[in-house]
Amino acid sequence: xxxxxxxxxxxxxxxxxxxxxxxxxxxxxxxxxxxxxxxxxxxxxxxxxxxxxxxxxxxxxxxxxxxxxxxxxxxxxxxxxxxxxxxxxxxxxxxxxxxxxxxxxxxxxxxxxxxxxxxxxxxxxxxxxxxxxxxxxxxxxxxxxxxxxxxxxxxxxxxxxxxxxxxxxxxxxxxxxxxxxxxxxxxxxxxxxxxxxxxxxxxxxxxxxxxxxxxxxxxxxxxxxxxxxxxxxxxxxxxxxxxxxxxxxxxxxxxxxxxxxxxxxxxxxxxxxxxxxxxxxxxxxxxxxxxxxxxxxxxxxxxxxxxxxxxxxxxxxxxxxxxxxxxxx
Amino acid sequence: xxxxxxxxxxxxxxxxxxxxxxxxxxxxxxxxxxxxxxxxxxxxxxxxxxxxxxxxxxxxxxxxxxxxxxxxxxxxxxxxxxxxxxxxxxxxxxxxxxxxxxxxxxxxxxxxxxxxxxxxxxxxxxxxxxxxxxxxxxxxxxxxxxxxxxxxxxxxxxxxxxxxxxxxxxxxxxxxxxxxxxxxxxxxxxxxxxxxxxxxxxxxxxxxxxxxxxxxxxxxxxxxxxxxxxxxxxxxxxxxxxxxxxxxxxxxxxxxxxxxxxxxxxxxxxxxxxxxxxxxxxxxxxxxxxxxxxxxxxxxxxxxxxxxxxxxxxxxxxxxxxx
Lengths: 329, 323
Description:
The complex is a heterodimer. Chain A is 29% helix and 22% strand. By secondary structure, chain A is α/β, with parallel strands linked by helices. Chain B has an 8-stranded mixed beta sheet with strand order 6-7-8-3-9-10-12-11, with helices on both faces. Chain B has a 4-stranded antiparallel beta sheet with strand order 2-1-4-5. The two termini of chain B are 30 Å apart. Helix content of chain B is 33%, strand content 23%. The chains are: A alpha/beta, B alpha/beta. The interface between A and B is large, with 47 and 49 residues.
């Protein structure tokens, strides 16, 4: 079995509002100033094996992107460490490695509109001395071709490309840094279905060729199922279930995972079929003030006293995955 | 059988820009019966939203309806004077948009906006309008509606805001609601709630629904009939399940095959090569021909006719009918 590559250890991330001047003075003088912080990621530990793709699924506000940014060394964690092959990704708020790169959701926002795409792709590798300035042209051309674009496009600007092509550029930019770990944060969410399929195929091809390790963040359960070896389900800053993709999808053990899978509309192929929709009741509680005990308890059909009092920890289920629920087995 | 509630025939909507004429909708025809749910599916730029806007006369210059007719309950909407259209809009045909943050006024309380909507068409007292607003909010599942009426849009979550938008659309029990990607901006669990509620509401009130979406699965769980649009034209139409089971147009087939659920995990998806042509310069024949694996000489020259049958399609080389 291959070894652990990315390891996230007891990651906690809180976002606190900056205090007003008055409150700062009051705090200095020893007064009690109430600050409410957003519990974005709450004590998450997980690891990704070398060469593996882990899917990270959750709804908006569950902390999946924040966790991805901590793993990528873009955001410092409030506590806990992210390490890559045993070495911390970030030390004292500075990123220490170029081995992890990110592809972001919106290729309209993540590419500098005033830079030709060739410069966008070459900037990182030149800065980090992976290539020399004179090699840049052929290096960029090679990557453009690899992601299915014409090498001659290097002179063009981002606005001359469609959304799908821009996402190809974003992928080329990340891979040109020759990373070992690729963090994909909703890479296909803003694309049309037919373009989405093209980008997923490109991702599968590059992953095969480069043997790259990947953290694939998405809210789209069917996309994650398609590309991931293992999958982790997040809810309100915590991982509620993690395991082999097929196990989690075919026998979900956390009530939230089950409800989430039930909520996904399926293609209906029978005439006059009355599709039963079984939505989860209620909404995600505010991360400013997460509920006590299990964070899913206000919406859970199985919730009992214990769920309100005691926070469940991840534990192994009979079916193989790990689940944070008092009553699953 | 009497005349359908809504009959659209040969609708073409174009935008005259400096770069040329953008043919957003070309020769679109369909009809809608009372209480029916119709799904309108396509990718970005397929013309599905512009079709919806055209029905309500919401196409602003430089856009205009170039051709065609829209008959609603015996009246012709194309060319109808604005005051008459305004009397229909919101009262008999209502619309729900994708992003409720854009449609709700951020500086007015939800109650104020709802009473405005009521009193725009019905001469009732403020108190009565308020009562109707409370009733409408309760119907879409907003708890404690009486108090929530005084809240502003930013105090609602995304799902709740969309419920408010739906409540406003439902407030006059319109004959038709046009819903333009109403759940796209929402999380799956909230989407499932809204889908469920919309279906119940439509059933209870007899309102017909035009559900515009890019998501085949969502539409298939809701709509009885399906229209598939590509580059401004309807390429296939029929009973939803039938079209999805046995698509005749290669584009519909391609859309279905692009869904990650159709291929075994880790395997390549069947992709449609290329991207949609610019609506400024559509190819002379079938607009899908440049991306189609069945395309031949004839596809590049002639626009295919609509072939009618159990499901209708526009293709020179349709995929065979299943037994």
